[in-house]
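Tokens as discussed.
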């Protein structure tokens, strides 16, 4: 397979092109981050455009399926990568601009019990270019002004560290997408070495931790990663990120009926988080997936859970559900379509 042109940083592309003058490389990157193909780069000499096409993979991911919510305008995409891998992304329009949720891997090997993306394990890592491709293809198709990126689709981003970091650097580079680092969120189940490494990069991006349990016993039932990393270690590392970047850390907590939604669980979580201004708890009534029997907590239970946290002085919210009518919990569309095209 050819290298994806978006796998390069703008500086890396200049170096790759060799004797091409810097201003030409800049013209090319400008076009690239507007989502244009070489044929559309009208101020670039034809020979150079032909060279790009011959040597590099320059196409954006192909749209296999597009589902648009009639309720709130959320658009869910199933993209096909060059090798046929199916990748999901979701564009959510907000008052401040649009946010895109991108996938970092095809499949996932973390094995969380409630998650559809992990049912068939990991197919492969996505390259930095394939992640950028999701943003550019979705922007081009939806016409939305994408101002925020959440790396919260299929896959564990810290299990694909180098590629994810290159993608983030290209997203925040003024020569790349030019987004603010503060508008980028990376969500992890808690790979501690990756978190430490990320913290050393000193990037003021937002961190989200998939916590889903108030103690290690419950967490181990839901998330295999909990066997090697304790909640205490995880939250200590998350606090360091807050101290270093002053970016609040979101603790994601999917409420699952009868598993982690008791009043005792709420109190235990409140205790862990109270007096920690760096944490914000985001409660998500779990999306049931076909392959598992988990069910979401009732509205009343969600309200009690939320109130327990708030009364203890913990910042907490219930995630607003977007695209309810095109629902397909993360990874579901990809699975439904599997076998047809891959
Ligand atoms: N691997 C990363 C990012 C991908 S998962 C992580 O673990 O954070 C993105 C978020 O969706 C995580 O918080 C994950 O726990 C959550 N999630 C996965 N399946 C879900 C489901 N069925 N219902 C609600 N949230 C789910």
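Sequence:
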């Amino acid at each position: 397979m050819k290298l994806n042109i978006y796998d390069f940083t703008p500086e890396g592309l200049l170096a790759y092109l060799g004797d091409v003058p810097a201003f030409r490389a800049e013209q090319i990157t400008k076009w690239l981050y507007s989502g244009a193909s070489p044929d559309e780069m009208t101020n670039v000499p034809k020979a150079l455009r032909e060279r790009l096409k011959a040597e590099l993979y320059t196409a954006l991911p192909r749209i296999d399926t597009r589902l648009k919510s009639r309720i709130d305008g959320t658009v869910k995409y199933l993209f096909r990568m060059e090798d046929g891998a199916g990748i999901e992304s979701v564009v959510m329009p907000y008052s401040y601009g649009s946010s895109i949720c991108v996938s970092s891997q095809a499949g996932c090997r973390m094995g969380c019990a409630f998650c559809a993306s992990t049912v068939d394990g990991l197919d492969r890592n996505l390259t930095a270019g394939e992640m950028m491709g999701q943003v550019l293809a979705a922007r081009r198709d939806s016409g939305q002004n994408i101002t925020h990126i959440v790396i919260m689709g299929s896959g564990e981003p810290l299990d694909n560290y180098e590629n994810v970091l290159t993608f983030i650097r290209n997203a925040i580079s003024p020569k790349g997408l030019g987004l603010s680092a503060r508008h980028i969120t990376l969500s992890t189940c808690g790979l501690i070495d990756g978190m430490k490494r990320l913290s050393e990069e000193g990037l003021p991006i937002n961190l989200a931790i998939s916590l889903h349990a108030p103690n290690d016993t419950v967490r181990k039932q839901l998330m295999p990663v909990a066997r090697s990393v304790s909640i205490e270690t995880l939250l200590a590392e998350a606090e360091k990120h807050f101290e270093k970047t002053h970016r609040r850390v979101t603790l994601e907590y999917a409420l699952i009926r009868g598993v982690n939604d008791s009043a005792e669980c709420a109190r235990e979580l409140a205790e862990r988080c109270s007096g920690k201004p760096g944490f914000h708890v985001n409660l998500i009534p779990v999306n049931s997936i076909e392959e598992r029997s988990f069910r979401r907590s009732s509205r009343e239970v969600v309200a009690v859970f939320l109130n327990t946290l708030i009364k203890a002085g913990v910042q907490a919210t219930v995630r607003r559900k977007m695209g309810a009518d095109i629902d397909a919990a993360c990874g579901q569309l990809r699975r439904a379509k599997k076998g047809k095209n891959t």
